[in-house]
Design goal:
794 residues; alpha+beta; globular; binds zinc ion; 26 strands
Length: 794
Amino acid sequence: MPSLTQLEAQRRAGIISVSGYDVRLDLNRGAQLFGSTTTIRFIAEPGSETFLDVAPHELHRVRLNGHDVDPATHADGRLPLHDLAAENEVIVEATMAYSNDGEGLHRHVDPADGFVYLYAMSFLDAAPRWFACFDQPDLKAPFTLTVDCPAEWTVIGNGPAVPVGAGRWRIETAHPIATYFATLVAGPYHSVIAEHDGIRLGVHARASLATHLDGQSAELIELTGRCLDEFHRLFGIRYPWGEYHQAFVPDFNAGAMENPGCVTIRDTYVFRSRVTDLERAQLAVLVAHEMAHMWFGDLVTMRWWDDLWLNESFAEYLGYRVGDAVTEQQPWVEFGARRKSWGYAADRRPSTHPVAGNGAADAKTALNDFDGISYAKGAAVLRYGNATFADLIGAWTAAGAHDMQGWADVWLRTAGLDTLSATVEDGIVQVSRTSAVARPHAVSVATLDAHAGELHREPALILDPVRIPVTSVPALVLPDAADETWAKISFDADAWQRMPTLLPSIKDQLTRVSIWNALRLGVADAEIAPSLALRIVESAAEGEPSEVVLGTILGWAVDTLAGVYLPGGSVRADAFARLAAAARQAMTAATPASGRQLTGVRAFVSASDDVELLRSWLGDDALLPGMAVDDELRWAMLERLASLGALDSAGIDRELAHDRSTQGTVHAAKCRALLPDPEAKAVAWQSMLTDAGRSNHELYATAEGFWRPEQTAITAPFVSRYFERIAGTAGLRSGWVVARLALLAYPRTAVERTTLDLSEALLGHDDLDGGIRRSVVDASDDLRRALASRERFG
Ligand SMILES: [Zn+2]
């Protein structure tokens, strides 16, 4: 199906404007198909022609202004409409297919009780999979939805759902919406309803999650109310969409989607087991982020996808700002350690792009550029822009050449990551910047003594080298001590050698985040030996004050540092053992029942090869004071045991029989793929590459389990098969799942020159799907970096 181009969208918006959608769905037609009848009223240039977007299972009948249109003219997802009048009405009757990939109208059967749950995801271009439409963001219209479904179902959508008969519901939006925001959530969902400041609030989840939702709902609703108050205060415009529902839905690809009045959220955020502060903080920020979109994105929408960054950078920034204002969490620390790291990784890749104005030629290209740059870099730049806006403009004006346009040019319209570094000579600290464009950095420069005591700190605007006189020679100069800018911080080799003793003594959380980011970027650029990085993690993990940072760094050290940067064999085994020891120390020192303790336990489980110990913990709830082995922790242990060959297929079946939940099914899929057994790998491979019937998250879990650093001998035959077969998956599935699977299934543990050669050869095919291409470009860049590090440091 061709992706809508910007030119086509501009032409269509020049010819028509949409007055209203009236969509009728019949959800009483069985497990595969549903009825979809759409009536669209629209104004057009008389005599002109255009086309509708519709992806039906079967197109039955099309009437334009009272005349039949031949359904056979429908091709490639488009239905041409000729001889338009000034005012038009088109009626499209179709049978559509439910999806299992999280886009269009997704159907999930809960393995716990057999109940059926539906939700619609229209972003980015999936609306035509459930109703006929002019699918582009600037053709907004009032949207009315009528739904026939089983009488006992809950139905929610973009406006209040009004019963209009037995098993029939009607939903109308308060304002025009873009087609990509249209949604429907329907099924025997369990709901908690409340009210805040005259706004009706609802939280919803599958019936099998009812007790967990009930346990969490008071906190969620209070958080939602606080966020509403804060946005009312910030924006001065009242919440515009009537009711505010947050529906936790299964198999969701993203974290959440900002459908007006009805946010859909991945239902692993209904916590069925104990969680860390990180997960709580992420949920708080997510709630604030999606709510920010009710104004920024939903009420005001970008004209074309190349300005999607406007939505996401602002929502990301506001999500953290409001999360910071209304919770006890420290979301900016999480932002620094996790989100910025995600964005830095995107910004150093060959696929990097500017925050703004990427000129997405078509909708699919826009989806590929929807990454850590759109979110984290944009938000970091906006945060810094707000904080020091007047200083910045003043400095630019004094420099004589720059204005806001200049700021936007260097920060929003130019891709790439600058480097800040410092030198000390003759009592002068000099902080310099390297980059292709004149990009100023507002930072706090600090100097530390040999015991990590802070000697000096001052604000600086780094455009040209900045010189700061100091009275004694510092042991370390921190060019961005408060983690305020978007840049790679580079320390010299001597400074890194001192880091195992310095970092444990540094108390300032944002200073530590700045150093941890520098470490990860330095390792990725083959500037820091992985063995030294491992020593730094070992020495500084236990004393890391932030639970969020602790979990993030240990996770990186296990998966990336030990998993792919260090060579295999005894070196890796030793690294895993040392990381397990560091994690065990952190968990033992933590307060019983704290999130920090859970963070340590999880990291220990991911690195330990102590099968006896893990098995004994599985059978014993008294693992550690305050730490019960609940469902999610149990699966984490089972996954580790599976990867070590200490769990077999029958064992996985037995575990699944104890946990017949959606999450249990996903974990079991991962366990099966993790088994160090050629037959299990072959079955997992077959399902990833050829099975169109598996749901998206089962596929992701299978791919995540497939490649393990300890199993390179078993998975070696599959390396070339990936490059032979992955292109074909674009014909098997559609949407997000294609690119995501291509990324997760990439042979990331085959750190060899031949893997890069095979990647290059695949990328040489012009007809490769755009999403797969982007995934191979990114994954092969990660692999190239690991290889470069191994070549340099052995
Ligand atoms: Zn968003």
